[in-house]
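Today's session is about reading a structure prediction critically. Students often jump straight to the picture, but the first step is always the sequence itself: look for stretches that repeat, for charged clusters, for runs of hydrophobic residues. Only then move on to the predicted structure, which in these notes is written as discrete structure tokens rather than atom positions. Here is the chain we will use throughout the hour.
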Amino acid sequence: MRACAPPTNTAVGNEGFAITDEDHILVERLVVEAVVSAMLRRPLVLLAGVSGSGKTQLAKRLGKAWAAGLFHGGTKSGVSKFVKASVTKVMQSFKDYGFIKAEDGGDALVSEWLLVGDLNTIAVQTSAWRERYCFTAVNSDWTEASHLWGYHVPLPAEAEGFYATGTLKVFLRAHLGFKKDNEVPHFVLLDEMNLSRPEHFASDLLSAMEVQLGSEGETADVIELHRAGGDVTLRGSDPATEGTTKVPARIGWAPGVCVIGTVNVDETTFSFAPKVLDRAALLEFTEVDLGRMFSEKRYKKGDYDDVYKANHKRFEALQKLLTPYNLHLAYRAAAEILEALKSASNTNNEWDHQICHKVLPRIRGPRASVETLLLELRKDPHVCNAPLKTDDEAKLDKTLKELDKT
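Below is the predicted structure for this chain, in token form.
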């Protein structure tokens, strides 16, 4: 996945939607189409990739577009009936509303790179979409469903009620407002979804997705929220509506609700159980194009264009060595290194420091799995430029020859 913020000047909009140019990110068209296709096909989409590559930013933009109705044509008020659409129709809708533009000024539907916009939360004429959108950061201590949905407090009387999370509020609105053949789009983003085990804190969510509709066309209410014996008052909501909404004991996954989970794979996260992967659409994006991003003012108005140009051979050599191990730098890490180089009095010394601080700590594992990479990094004239001992040189040459054969 490839994303950055290019410089812009004006805002564009269409009816109830206003897209802010300054918040556009640069993404490959095929990436946008792949995520759109997954969201249309499956209610749960997982985005995996290199940390700092723009997964969350893209998910937030597409999630707002889903909740506002841009996936389904949209309306003047921004509230849309849920209509099954094709990728082609969605991309055309995005183009019509200014949500995507061709980076090179050509046709956004055929260009390789797109400017993907964000809804202007100030200029949008209606706030209805905000009630159907939620960003939720998953924590590492989530072990049960209450972390995802909230909890019921039975006593004392003045505090009695269900203290809901933002995720539940979106699901509850979709559940209570569900009408057959007139589903309204709702969206939840679960950021860093695998910091905890989804099969633990979201087991009922997975079950609800599997049996989304019952035999009579109603939502299959398999998500148990409380055991109060009747509806309880929703607490912790908008003060204007505090106490007016009731939370039923059980709800279901209403059609029109889409959930995206962003995923990073490292020693701090958990792998997904087969039942999670079986229910979701998993998209993995690992390609990073630093040369394109840090040129022509594509990233943060060109703050790092000159320093990248002066050090591009270093970055190209580093990426070439790290990519086969899936350890290459994404845009956030590269920008941090460029910031350090930009302010350094001696870029050679600072480059060495950044290799120690930002690259070497990422290389972990038994000697047999990392030794070749470490020797290559040390030997490369643009990365470390440190001559190898005779034994290490012979060992590296032997290993590389064996790899070439395979």
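Discussion point for the tutorial: The longest strand covers residues 17-28.
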